[in-house]
Amino acid sequence: MATLRHFLQFNDCSRAEIEYLFARARRIKDRLRQGHSTRTLEGKTLAMIFEKASTRTRVSFETGMGQLGGNVLCLSKNDMQLARGETVEDTARVLSRMVDVVMIRTYAQTMVETFAAYSRSPIINGLTNEYHPCQVLADIYTFIEHRGAITGKTVVWIGDPNNVFYTWLQAATLLDFKVTLSSPQGYPVDDARLTAAERARLEIFADPLDAARGASLVTTDVWTSMGFEAENEQRRRDFQHWQVNAALMKHAAADAVFMHCLPAHRGEEVTDEVIDGPQSLVWDEAENRMHAQKALLEFLLIGEVKTS
Known about the structure:
14% strand; globular
């Protein structure tokens, strides 16, 4: 049995461990496409707790765990005594005695951290307001799959510096690449959240075209993240010049790719021409959530798997 580990932030794994996950995801994906099963988690049970809506997170984890031979429980807060005042600590103590691994998609990072502190089972952050490590794990795997090593490259984030952006900074520090950012005035990076190493990996531009110049990967997210819906109209006005379109993509490297964690608001943060265009890896990126997370589930539950 693997030593108890959690995946709450991207840097909960070392560089060597992340690189193992990429290699293992490729092996699992290749075997699936060749018609071979990888049932390394027979008899294991994944519990998924959702306080935020989900398409890709739920389907990728549920399908992936099934392909590995495991079982899945899907729970909303209202399905549990959490909705009636049971503490996170007590829920973690009970649930982790009955299941082998727990994925949580919620609001506050403190919730997953508290759950992990009282759990006997590995806890995976499926998204919080602060970080989205599974998304960036899949994104970087997708880049490597199509363009090779990300070391030394530049990733440009256009728009709101949100949970995915902060996770990209953690990844840049761990895997030795650069992040450039352009966001409207009034939507700054929270410098108090950054380590010195993360600050050294980040360059901020007022003009999104300058931020995109020479980038190997262009990525963005919706202008209004979950939990900020009351600001939607204001954000649509503020972000109108921070759209990933054909003109912006021309400033990136000639072989640059485009990614988006989805769902996309077409015509806002990205145009149809880009998301459906030849530089877009969005659909491979979405599929690869499943393959990268299968590698992660294996790693947390049984450790590294020797492959031929």
